[in-house]
Amino acid sequence: MAIKNNQLVQMHYELKVDDNMLETNFEASPIEFEYGKGEILPALEAAIKEMEEGQTKDINIKAKDAYGEHDPKLAETLPISDFEGIDLEIGLVLEADEENGEIIKATVTEVTKESVTVDYNHPLAGCDLDFKVLIKRIV
User: Fold this and answer.
1) What are the start-end ranges of the E strands in the chain?
2) Which of 63, 114, 120, 129 is most buried when burial is the number of CB atoms within 10 A of its CB?
3) Angstrom distance (rounded) from CA 98 to CA 119
4) What span, in angstroms and rounded, lies between the C-alpha atoms of 100 and 103?
């Protein structure tokens, strides 16, 4: 029986990008979410719709359907003085509050004596995602 909106789903998953394991919960508790509420990626939610309890499936989600393509316009170079007191390194994820109270994240991609380049793209933007999912329980 297919999963229906508003049903509680418990799911184990592993996520790989270019055959590199990024995360898995197969050795831990499953995630739990309400189907149809947008709590997981919409493309992943659509791909599990016809699955049944106990079923395992490999799912590939193209970048455009996951976190979008990488947009070079979302990178910005700022004076290093804006980062006083921060131990900067490539890959560091910085958080800041927007005026509307939302938290934005930026990844440091370059550091020089004069400037810091940050990228506001999601870290998985431009990546195809390979999931293996197991539907543990549907309530």
Assistant:
1) 8-17, 20-24, 31-34, 56-61, 75-79, 93-97, 103-111, 115-119, 129-138
2) 129
3) 16
4) 9
* Distance between CA atoms of residues 48 and 135, nearest Å: 8
Paired tokens of 47: 């791909």
List Cβ neighbours of 134 (8 Å cut-off, separation of 6 or more).
11, 12, 13, 26, 30, 54, 55, 56
Asked if 112 and 78 touch (Cβ cutoff 8 Å), the reply is no
Q: What is the pLDDT of residues 41-68, one digit of tens each?
A: 999 999 999 999 999 999 999 999 999 9
Rg of the chain over all Cα atoms, to the nearest angstrom: 19
> How confident is the model over 74-122, as pLDDT tens digits?
999 999 999 999 999 999 999 988 888 889 999 999 999 999 999 999 9
